[in-house]
Specification:
By secondary structure, the chain is mainly alpha-helical. It has 6 helices and no strands.
């Protein structure tokens, strides 16, 4: 039953996605138009959601107890990351987010924080410095560490 409900929700989203994409207009002369890419994604999305409705898997065993709580805490960590990204900045928020998720997956806090620091700095250099895609400065901007 859960696959069928998921398929139904995804089908509604796919239909909404395709209908919304149909209204896109471009002011430049593009032979295909801006709605092609969303349609290329939305149509298979709808077909695959129909597959979930028509051919569902056997009913899964849902998580209970500590595993369910860990899943909920992971969702809280992702939502907190999204809210903290602007005020704290990419590096600080990413360190906190990676550390929290790594601890939920069983890592010790010290190595988790070290991994979070390395991941945050590498991603910051890759996107902000090398690719010139600006990331939120947050605390670094307030401290004058970033122009």
């Amino acid at each position: 039953m859960s696959d069928r409900l998921t398929g139904l929700v995804l089908l509604v989203l796919a239909i909404a996605y395709v209908v919304t994409a149909g209204g896109y207009e471009a002011r430049i002369s593009d032979p295909l138009g801006p709605s092609v890419f969303p349609l290329v994604l939305g149509i298979p999305f709808g077909v695959l959601s129909l597959y979930l409705i028509v051919r569902p898997d056997p009913e899964p065993a849902w998580a209970r107890g500590w595993p369910l709580l860990k899943q909920g805490l992971a969702v809280v960590a992702f939502v907190a990351y999204a809210y903290l990204l602007e005020p704290l900045g990419f590096i600080v928020a990413t360190i906190l987010g990676v550390t929290a998720l790594a601890c939920l997956l069983g890592a010790r806090p010290g190595p988790a924080a070290a991994a979070g620091a390395v991941i945050a700095v590498v991603l910051f250099v890759l996107f902000d410095v090398l690719l010139s895609l600006p990331l939120p400065a947050g605390l670094l901007g307030y401290l004058g560490m970033r122009g």
